[in-house]
TrEMBL record:
Pfam families assigned: IMPDH
Protein name, entry field: IMP dehydrogenase/GMP reductase domain-containing protein
SUPFAM superfamilies to which the protein is assigned, alphabetical: Inosine monophosphate dehydrogenase (IMPDH)
Residue stretches making up the IMP dehydrogenase/GMP reductase domain: 1-91
InterPro entries in alphabetical order: Aldolase_TIM, IMP_DH, IMP_DH_GMPRt
Lineage, uppermost ranks: Eukaryota, Metazoa, Spiralia, Lophotrochozoa, Platyhelminthes
Source organism of the structure: Paragonimus skrjabini miyazakii
Length: 95
């Protein structure tokens, strides 16, 4: 998958997720959260990298192209109710 460990140790994993030249690596695996991580200035680059990666997954490289794709029905958004969001989340990993 796209865990940080895989991206750091295997160059093929980096190429697969289009970020071999990026300083900031964004994992696509299971992650956790903590209460406080510091300044928002340290968090924003990770958010930007995550948005860029998501845009790569839908096949666009800019927000303008994403808007164009949605207005021409090349791409559509899906409304998900809270139970569908919970079902799509990581679950059943506890031993």
């Amino acid at each position: 998958m796209g865990s940080l460990e895989a991206m750091e140790t295997h160059s093929s994993s980096q190429a697969r997720y289009y970020n071999e030249a990026q300083r900031i690596k964004v994992a696509q695996g299971v992650s956790g959260s903590i209460m406080d991580r510091g300044s928002v200035h340290q968090l924003v680059p990770y958010l930007v990298a995550g948005v860029q990666h998501g845009m790569q997954q839908v096949g666009t490289s800019s927000l303008a192209h994403l808007v164009q794709m949605t207005t021409t029905s090349l791409s559509r958004f899906e409304h998900r109710i809270s139970s569908a969001q919970m079902e799509g989340d990581v679950h059943s990993l506890y031993s």
